[in-house]
Design goal:
Distance between the termini: 200 Å
Oligomer: single chain
Shape: elongated
Number of strands: 4
CATH architecture of the domain at 45-137: Orthogonal Bundle
CATH topology of the domain at 45-137: Arc Repressor Mutant, subunit A
CATH class of the domain at 45-137: Mainly Alpha
């Protein structure tokens, strides 16, 4: 007899995919897991399956989380460990820093030196509170400047400009005279052509000059001499000159000296000065 040959494929295992967790899937990855008892690192799926990080960034994050405390994780150290270039590793580190898995801060040590500390977070530090830092390594609140760098001096604040003094209210006659003087300025200096509003605003100041017995010609010379060129704001310049060059009031006239009148002596008829008639000094001294 000839040997029997199996022409039908072997029967598949009973059950359908997804019916039980022990059933092997028909496609995709199949995990063959062994329990770790030492030398392992727990990585969250939020990092391993991150939707925006590159594969290089995810791999660097896993490598950094597996390193012991104090290990070097700078660009130079990682470039010496992996075949990727410094540019690619630096870009991956920036990805992890933006996603919250790395945090680089500058701290000042007790001896005054400044160091850069890299923190590796197994979860993004923006979603969980940061662990407390030891008091010996806690950064100070003072600005991070080198001990030998002098402090940058602060620029002094500019002093506020003094406001112009308010102009007095003149009488109607002085106001009209001052307005005519201001309107006439353009005949002596064409750049001092003023509007009616400017004349009305500046007339009280010119009237104050007139109240202090300033001659109109003197006022005109003070307002039109040494004008800047070009003159963009004539009314503003005139207001400054009117208030800044205002002369002081004239002092009161001095009293006339008292003149003692001449008198004729009643005894010797000699003239002498005295407020009232009488005898001269010699005649008064000769009387016993």
């Amino acid at each position: 007899m000839t040997a029997q040959k199996a022409i039908a494929p072997p029967c598949a295992r009973p059950g359908s995919p997804g019916a039980s967790s022990d059933v092997t899937p028909t496609s995709g990855v199949i995990h063959v897991n062994s329990r770790h008892t030492s030398g392992f690192t727990v990585i969250g799926n939020h990092l391993a399956q991150h939707g925006k990080l590159s594969l290089l960034a995810i791999g660097l994050a896993v490598h950094i989380q597996s390193l012991p405390e104090g290990a070097k994780v700078g660009v130079k150290a990682l470039t010496a460990r992996f075949p990727e270039s410094e540019m690619r590793i630096a870009a991956a580190l920036r990805e992890l820093e933006a996603a919250g898995y790395l945090r680089r801060i500058r701290v000042r040590l007790r001896d005054g030196r400044v160091r850069t500390r890299t923190e590796s977070h197994n979860r993004p530090y923006a979603t969980v509170p940061a662990p407390p830092m030891p008091a010996a390594d806690r950064p100070r609140a003072e600005p991070l400047t080198a001990p030998h760098d002098p402090p940058t001096p602060r620029k002094p604040r500019p002093e506020p400009r003094p406001r112009p003094a308010p102009l007095p209210r003149p009488t109607d006659a002085l106001h009209r005279t001052a307005a005519l003087l201001l309107a006439d300025l353009r005949r002596h200096a064409p750049v001092l052509t003023l509007s009616e509003a400017d004349v009305a605003a500046l007339a009280p100041g010119v009237a104050a000059w007139l109240e202090r017995d300033a001659h109109p010609d003197a006022i005109r010379r003070a307002l039109t001499t040494d004008l800047p060129a070009p003159l963009a704001h004539p009314a503003r310049l005139l207001r400054h000159r009117i208030t800044a060059l205002l002369p002081p009031p004239l002092p009161a006239p001095a009293a006339a000296p008292t003149v003692i009148p001449l008198q004729n002596c009643d005894d010797c008829n000699r003239a002498f000065r005295a407020p009232e008639p009488g005898r001269c000094r010699d005649c008064r001294g000769a009387q016993p």
